[in-house]
Amino acid sequence: MDIQKSPSNTQFVIAPSILSADFACLGKEVQDVLLAGADWIHFDVMDNHYVPNLTIGPLVCEAIRPHATKDGKPAMIDVHLMVEPVDRLVPDFAKAGANLISFHPEASPHVNRTLNLIRDQGCQAGLVFNPATPLDHLDHTLDLLDLVLLMSVNPGFGGQSFIPSTLNKITQVRARLDRYQAETGRYIRLEVDGGIKVDNIAQVAKAGADTFVAGSAIFGNKSYGTVIDAMRTELANSGIA
Ligand code: DX5
Ligand code: ZN
């Protein structure tokens, strides 16, 4: 499948979380938000076990797959697994058309095995860190990662406020990923998820993020394009290339 691969240079990605979309017409919501200028679709999977909420699974991913296109090509479906255990669901999401699958390391007893499973299924792989989760799991996983996802809220719900201490964590991960890129030439994306709005996206970018999940900010406005355009303007004015 011709999907957007991580570029070798910084290119900002806006990934609306469909958690805040109208579930009664999800296919149209996906089409509309991509037409409005979104890059990826962020797909939040919650199991009422790892997090206290229950959302959508592989069947819904499969159902939206044909609607998730951009300029006639498949757009990235960025699956964020907030489930425990993880492995059982990975092949199902790969078959359902997920392009990138991220999971929380504390939800898998064998993180390396889960990352390899995701890659063996033909997907890109990401690790997700909650606000209070240390970054130790990056020590031995970078070669298997396409993306690091930092939570800027506690996972489980849309519409929460951005936790400011995330900025320091973004800076730390950025430095680490830059070092890794200098050593290996591999670019690993840094995504931030939770409470991202027009008025804080530039600050998050300046700290070092390149990929921005936004649910309520985009789907809570009747003009998705207005919000996405305003976010891109903020990013363009942030002074980061
Ligand atoms: C939270 C989810 C987020 C959430 C973001 O557990 O992972 O993706 O939907 O929503 P907002 O942008 O409203 O914080
Ligand atoms: Zn998410």
TrEMBL record:
Name the Gene Ontology biological process terms.
pentose catabolic process; pentose-phosphate shunt; reductive pentose-phosphate cycle
- Which positions are annotated as binding substrate? 17, 80, 156-159, 193-195, 215-216
The UniProt GO MF terms for this protein read: D-ribulose-phosphate 3-epimerase activity; metal ion binding
> What cellular component GO annotations does this protein have?
cytoplasm
Q: Per the UniProt record, which residue ranges are transmembrane?
A: none
| Cofactor annotation | Co(2+); a divalent metal cation; Zn(2+); Fe(2+)
- Function of the molecule: Catalyzes the reversible epimerization of D-ribulose 5-phosphate to D-xylulose 5-phosphate.
Q: Which PANTHER family match?
A: RIBULOSE-5-PHOSPHATE-3-EPIMERASE
The name under which this protein is listed is Ribulose-phosphate 3-epimerase
This protein's species is Polynucleobacter brandtiae
